[in-house]
């Protein structure tokens, strides 16, 4: 007798592979919604409905997802999943040694801001990809379009992270935030709360077209803030994807990267396919300046956590030394670095 597969796991795996391939959000959502429905439905009822061909009467289950659930319950890998697995080869050539050296991801989002999945699911996916830790960096309050976290919501998130960590050990979720760099270089969150977090990514999300004479001191002021650990997607460019294209912000790269080196702030190598930020020419400037780096996915969904190869390949091409990539360090070493460089002359 053939044993049934887990239809919830199969549906989530399909969603993961669709996210990894940067497929449209509506398609991914169909499988994640169906997975949630299947998880909430008693196994006996799923079996009965599969046999009676009434799975589509359940909310959020359509023709394709019903077929996947039926195949899974019959002990067969869903044909849709099989097709995706067959096409899920390496995302990019190169960077394999650097990817193998990474122990975590320092820039990720959950449904608490503009991500699409719960914290636990993001953490479990990162763990299954071989990470030792995941830094959760949901947005700060000014970015209302992304449902940024007020101080009160961030406090509640810290409680949830602590509870999940109690259950997932030795894997760890490290606390963090992607904090907006305001127009004058201040940060969009209370300093005392930022100081409590394990790691802070600071990014420009507004005023991206200001002049270099304005943007350079704005970025340097943020970099000099003792609460900042990583400078996120420094040019803000978009080179593809549903949000269209956006040119690079203008700033004096030599001054900005010298500030990163001076204050011990890592330059992010953002692995999102629509960002791939910084561009190669600027990444090489940061290498020559002696900067530290963090190769991150900026993931907003579980499948996007597998995007680090994009950043690793670019980092390898630009000769980023592995020992200057902060997320090649263990969680304890990373935390020691954030604590140490926060006390700056």
Protein described:
By secondary structure, the protein is α/β, with parallel strands linked by helices. The protein has two domains: 7-85, DNA polymerase beta, N-terminal domain-like (DNA polymerase, domain 1, Orthogonal Bundle), CATH 1.10.150.110; 96-341, Alpha-Beta Barrel (TIM Barrel), CATH 3.20.20.140. 44% of the residues lie in helices and 10% in strands. The longest helix is centred in the middle third of the chain and has 18 residues, at 151-168. The radius of gyration is 21 Å and the shape is elongated. The termini are far apart.
Strand content: 5-15%
Order of helices and strands: HHHHHHEHEHEHEHEHEHEHH
> Per the principal axes of the C-alpha atoms, what is the gross shape?
elongated
Number of helix segments?
Answer: 14
The CATH homologous superfamily of the largest domain is named Metal-dependent hydrolases
Q: Give the spatial strand order of the biggest sheet.
A: 1-2-3-4-5-6-7
User: What count of structural domains?
Assistant: 2
Give a short account of the largest sheet: 7 strands, parallel
Bin the helical content: 40-55%
CATH topology of the largest domain: TIM Barrel
**Cα separation of the termini:** 69 Å
Mean pLDDT: 95
**Which structural class should the secondary elements be placed in?**
alpha/beta
């Amino acid at each position: 007798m053939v044993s049934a597969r887990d239809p919830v796991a199969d549906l989530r795996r399909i969603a993961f592979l669709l996210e990894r391939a940067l497929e449209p959000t509506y398609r991914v959502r169909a499988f994640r919604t169906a997975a949630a429905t299947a998880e909430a439905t008693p196994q006996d009822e799923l079996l009965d409905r599969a046999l009676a061909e009434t799975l589509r009467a359940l909310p959020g289950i359509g023709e394709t997802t019903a077929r996947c659930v039926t195949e899974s319950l019959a002990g067969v890998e869903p044909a849709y999943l099989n097709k995706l697995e067959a096409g899920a080869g390496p995302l990019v050539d190169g960077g394999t040694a650097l990817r193998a050296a990474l122990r975590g991801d320092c820039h990720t989002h959950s449904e608490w801001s503009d991500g699409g999945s719960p914290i636990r699911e993001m953490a479990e996916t990162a763990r299954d990809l071989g990470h030792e830790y995941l830094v959760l960096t949901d947005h700060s309050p000014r970015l209302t379009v992304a449902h940024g976290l007020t101080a009160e919501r961030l406090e509640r998130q810290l409680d949830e992270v602590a509870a999940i960590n109690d259950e997932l050990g030795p894997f760890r979720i490290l606390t963090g935030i992607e904090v907006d760099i305001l127009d004058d270089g201040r940060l969009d969150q209370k300093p005392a709360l930022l100081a409590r977090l394990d790691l802070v990514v600071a990014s420009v999300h507004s005023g991206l077209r200001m002049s270099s004479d304005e943007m350079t001191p704005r970025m340097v002021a943020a970099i000099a803030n003792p609460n900042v650990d990583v400078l996120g997607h420094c040019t803000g460019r978009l080179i593809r994807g549903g949000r269209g294209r956006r040119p690079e912000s203008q700033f004096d790269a030599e001054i900005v990267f010298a500030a990163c080196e001076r204050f011990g702030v890592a330059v992010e190598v953002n692995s999102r396919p629509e960002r791939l930020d910084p561009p190669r020419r600027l990444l090489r400037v940061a290498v020559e300046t002696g900067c530290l780096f963090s190769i991150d996915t900026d993931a907003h969904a579980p499948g996007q956590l597998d995007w680090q190869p994009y950043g690793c390949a670019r980092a390898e091409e630009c000769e980023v030394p592995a020992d200057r990539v902060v997320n090649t360090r263990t969680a304890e070493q990373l935390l020691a670095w954030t604590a140490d460089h926060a006390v700056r002359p």
